[in-house]
Backbone:
């Protein structure tokens, strides 16, 4: 069997990856919770954000954490515009159409990146990735620790935004009762677009946290998106707490199954959880809505 | 024909239907009335098999069908309409009705012929080849009845087929309902329009807060203080008697 | 079905059958075979997605199973190619029934059904990529051995006609759906499952039969694919590309119509070739166009290309 130290490290690594997963899932679950749609382009949008981080670094030597200041608002704007001007109008209010439109969008984005950057894998050329923090007998990667803390902080911020601001109240009102919200004068299309923008902003933060230790190619986001779907389904569609817990759980599961089964079979663990949760308890562990 | 024996339905803590019983004699038009939220549609759901009762039994022609799936009950001869009418949007009126007709006529030609015949019978004769989505509300209500009727049921459950119609449309559809019964189909109907219940039904059951509070011929039921209270609140019956009102006012409630 | 129902089908097949005898080049024939295989996969998707309204994002699970079974049974068990293809179709059908039983029993529909089918396809892809019997990541290579028993033909036109025959059968099945009790039940379940059940339709059984037929047709496309290209790996067999192609063709052509998938596959693959030609060697450009087409069709022509024709005829009739 494995030494306890390896197991503890695997668990901690899993938690750190899981926090970033949670952030990605947060964007997905927020959009689902309010618009009641599944955004299939979520992964492709993450890839776009990751390329933006990479571009800022490669062209202008912008530190990925600093790049957040520019990329987060940009992705928010892009998300807002996509929902307001493409996904919303094109879908004619049918859920199946949303699924197909966002699928179309993901095909367009992914392949546009492929046409621009080819299938080469790119990483930030920086030694920040190798820095570690010593924690007793354990060595933890600094950028991943930063990622962990920042992901939790952003989750907290988002929660505050939803609970304490007028925008947040409008979003929650629309999520609860679309018609009622419209009747009291809330502009539903605007709130939808803002929510979609917030989902994309979460992706931008995740991209900035991922890039110091990860790489990007046009298919990178696709690898995350099914994981994010699994987390969202596990945590309960639309539940923020569920996304956080689900993300951490999946991070740890992936870390252990990678340790025990090897990387490629390790992925199967996630898909099987996904399928099982869908078949047995589609409302997730925290979900209330049927 | 139909006997419902102390049906109870609980949703988590809430008791939607509580020990409700009723019988529908063959060849009758029986009404089920009650204020909003009384549990009428829930009761219908249990009779037609869409909801599993927490307790109690449903007997159809003497056979216990309590645990049977809706499509099996349809084969036995129980058909129902839905309060919220939703035609099969991609199909024409005749094709919509044919979905019901296919139950007894597996061949397309027979099913379509049956569908056209039933469609004409409920007054949709000149709209059979229209897309179902183009029908007016009144047309959709007729379509809903026609679809159910095309399954050639022995018992037809009508869930508020008159709701949302204007008085002249109601006047037009009443003879259709009566003609269905005269054609040998027993009817149990949920209805809010009292005038219609008074004219159509031989027997009426009143459901209030999940309980069966009264039953009998419509005139008699409408004068029942318990029924008046169910509709108008506690003490209403006493106030009305004091004011010398008659049950007619309730009939218009 | 009567003669009038079958006439357009006969004409379309006759025209397509005549095509390869017009002295087309090898690359054009290749293109046509690929297009027909995709049309076949799309015809399969259309049974469940178009007529049944259950959008699968994982038809690769059936395509890949048909393809792998056809190849593995020949390579590792020495089966005759025809038997292997038949078994591939059978296995694909079983996979369809299994996935359908699990998902429909659990009441999954809409987005949930799309996601669960996608996940199943991904599980198959990972397994095929690691298992020995499927050749792992290296894939499988069928030996080049032209002959009737090996289902390989030195004249590509013969294979083209074979694929066309399968397309013809799938078209016939779709036509039957438009004209039969089963098809009416399937459409009724698509439009309103509750109302259909009240009319005596056994919704679960209808959906299961639909996914079985759908999977069988798409599995046939997979088996034919490997017989033609003689090579298979997990990314080809179970990759998202075929799940996407299988749904694009019917949606662009006309969802829930017999001819939609064929029209859609011809239009899209043709457009893809033109784009590739114009863009030079840049990868992905054809798929950008496909994705944009998908969005445009849903936004502006929900009934697909065939729907445009019907809409124009209706407008003309209204104007006259």
Residues:
């Amino acid at each position: 069997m494995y030494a306890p130290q390896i197991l503890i490290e695997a668990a901690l690594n899993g938690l750190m990856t899981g926090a970033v997963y949670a952030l990605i899932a947060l964007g997905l679950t927020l959009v689902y919770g309010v618009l009641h749609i599944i955004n299939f382009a979520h992964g492709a949008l993450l890839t776009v954000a990751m390329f933006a981080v990479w571009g800022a670094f490669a062209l202008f030597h912008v530190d990925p954490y600093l790049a957040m200041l520019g990329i987060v608002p940009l992705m928010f704007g892009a998300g807002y515009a996509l929902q307001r001007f493409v996904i919303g109008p094109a879908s004619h209010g049918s859920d199946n159409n949303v699924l197909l439109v966002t699928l179309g969008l993901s095909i367009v984005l992914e392949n546009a990146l492929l046409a621009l950057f080819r299938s080469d894998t790119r990483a930030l050329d920086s030694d920040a990735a190798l820095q570690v923090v010593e924690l007793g007998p354990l060595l933890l990667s600094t950028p991943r620790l930063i990622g962990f803390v920042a992901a939790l902080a952003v989750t907290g911020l988002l929660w505050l935004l939803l609970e304490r601001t007028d925008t947040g109240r409008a979003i929650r009102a629309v999520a609860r009762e679309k018609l009622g919200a419209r009747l009291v004068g809330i502009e539903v299309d605007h709130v939808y677009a803002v929510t979609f923008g917030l989902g994309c902003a979460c992706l931008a933060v995740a991209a900035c946290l991922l890039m110091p230790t990860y790489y990007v190619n046009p298919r990178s986001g696709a690898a995350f998106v099914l994981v994010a779907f699994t987390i969202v389904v596990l945590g309960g569609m639309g539940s923020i707490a569920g996304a956080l817990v689900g993300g951490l759980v999946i991070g740890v599961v992936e870390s252990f199954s990678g340790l025990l089964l090897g990387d490629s079979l390790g992925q199967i663990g996630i898909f099987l959880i996904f399928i099982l949760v869908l078949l047995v308890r589609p409302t997730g562990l925290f979900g209330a809505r049927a | 024909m139909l006997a419902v024996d102390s049906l109870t339905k609980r949703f988590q803590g809430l008791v939607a239907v509580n020990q409700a019983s009723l019988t529908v004699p063959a060849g009758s038009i029986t009404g089920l009335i009650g204020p909003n939220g009384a549990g009428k549609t829930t009761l219908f759901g249990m009779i037609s098999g869409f909801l599993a009762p927490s307790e109690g039994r449903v007997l159809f022609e003497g056979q216990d069908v309590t645990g049977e799936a809706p499509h099996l009950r349809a084969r036995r001869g129980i058909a129902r309409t839905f309060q919220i009418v939703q035609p099969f949007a991609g199909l024409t009126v005749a094709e919509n009705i044919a979905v019901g007709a296919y139950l007894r006529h597996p061949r397309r030609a027979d099913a379509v012929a049956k569908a056209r015949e039933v469609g004409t019978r409920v007054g949709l004769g000149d709209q059979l080849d229209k897309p179902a989505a183009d029908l007016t509300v009144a047309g959709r209500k007729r379509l809903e009845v026609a679809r159910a009727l095309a399954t050639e049921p022995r018992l037809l459950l009508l869930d508020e087929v008159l709701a949302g119609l204007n008085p002249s449309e109601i006047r037009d559809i009443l003879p259709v309902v009566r003609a269905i019964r005269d054609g040998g189909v027993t009817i149990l109907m949920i209805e809010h329009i009292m005038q219609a219940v008074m004219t159509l039904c031989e027997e009426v059951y009143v459901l209030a807060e999940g309980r069966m509070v009264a039953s009998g011929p419509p005139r008699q039921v409408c004068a029942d203080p318990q029924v008046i209270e169910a509709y108008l609140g506690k003490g209403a019956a006493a106030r009305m008697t004091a004011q010398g009102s008659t049950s007619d006012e309730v009939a218009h409630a | 079905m009567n003669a009038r129902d079958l006439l357009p089908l006969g004409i379309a097949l006759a025209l397509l059958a005549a095509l390869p005898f017009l002295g087309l080049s090898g690359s054009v024939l290749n293109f046509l075979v690929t297009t027909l295989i995709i049309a076949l996969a799309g015809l399969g998707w259309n049974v469940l997605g178009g007529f049944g309204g259950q959008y699968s994002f994982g038809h690769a699970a059936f395509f890949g199973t048909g393809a792998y079974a056809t190849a593995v049974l020949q390579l590792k068990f020495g089966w005759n190619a025809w038997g292997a293809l038949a078994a591939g179709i059978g296995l694909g059908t079983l996979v369809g029934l299994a996935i359908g039983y699990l998902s429909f029993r659990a009441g999954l529909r809409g987005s949930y059904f799309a996601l669960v089918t996608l996940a199943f396809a991904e599980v198959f892809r990972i397994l095929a990529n690691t298992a020995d019997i499927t050749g792992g990541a290296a894939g499988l290579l069928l030996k080049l051995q032209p002959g009737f028993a090996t289902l390989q033909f030195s004249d590509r036109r013969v294979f083209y006609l074979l694929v066309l025959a399968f397309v013809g059968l799938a078209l016939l099945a779709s036509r039957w759906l438009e004209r039969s009790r089963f098809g009416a039940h399937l459409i009724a379940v698509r439009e309103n499952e509750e109302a259909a059940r009240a009319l005596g339709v056994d919704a679960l059984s209808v959906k299961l039969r639909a996914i079985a037929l759908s999977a069988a047709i798409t599995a046939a496309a997979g088996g034919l694919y490997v017989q033609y290209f003689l090579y298979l790996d997990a990314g080809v067999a179970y990759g998202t590309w075929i799940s996407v192609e299988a749904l694009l063709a019917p949606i662009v052509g006309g969802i829930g119509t017999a001819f939609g998938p064929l029209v859609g596959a011809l239009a899209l693959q043709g457009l893809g070739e033109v784009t590739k030609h114009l863009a030079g060697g840049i990868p992905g450009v054809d798929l950008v166009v496909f994705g944009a087409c998908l969005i445009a069709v849903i936004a502006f022509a929900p009934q697909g290309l065939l729907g445009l024709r019907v809409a124009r005829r209706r407008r003309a009739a209204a104007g006259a």
